[in-house]
Amino acid sequence: MTDVRYALLDPTGNQTVLVESPVPAESQPLIAGQIMEREPDAEQVGFLSPRPDGVSMRMAGGEFCGNAAMSAAVLYAMDRGIREGVIPVAVSGTPEPVSVRVSGLPDGSVRGTVSMPLPLSVKEESFPGGKRYPVVRFHGISHVILESPLPRAEAEAAAPVWCGYLGAESVGLMMYDRAAKTLAPLVYVPAADTLFWENSCASGTTAVGAFLAEKEGAVSLSVRQPGGTLHIERTAGGLYLTGTVRFRYRRTVSL
To answer: Best exposed site among 158, 217, 232, 255 by fewest CB in 10 Å?
Structure first.
């Protein structure tokens, strides 16, 4: 057994464990699973390591996660007494670090704005049974935009099949209601063996913004999700995702 220190943060309901103890990459899925058994509210686990100008993070399944990147920046800033600033975060699933602007709020939470990676492609793709859906592909994760939502059980059965069919490292099924501006995100990460109806999904919200921008050009959109609201903005300069993060606690456990 070994002692593992981690922090739990709440970025718009998508509760995220950030492991601060060094853990080899090959052991991370196992350690993540053990931690999530102890933290039933957690939806994902990232593993931190220092870098000269910020922080580096690998998700347990090697995927990209915008909410975890925001959380890593907030934890870094909190530990260094940075109330406002820009933190570079190197994240698994994307080749370049992302920049996260953090700003403390009066209620003790922190607003974070992530300069999100641009999609590799945004286009309709074919699925089993001859159906076609818009797919927004990023490094590390591909999101299927479903404006006609699938029944819950059907979506959960489809996610692993579609992940393999798309040849994606991980996949999100984004049930988006354009009129109500609401999103129900289902995310499957095979390397971590997780399938979650997430309370919020940063990369999925970004995928919705990128999808709409293909048709509408610039987009500035607030999207309500079970855990709260994320804002996505598509400008000529890039894709910017804004949410809030609340630090919950740190723990050290023997695993």
So the answer is: 217
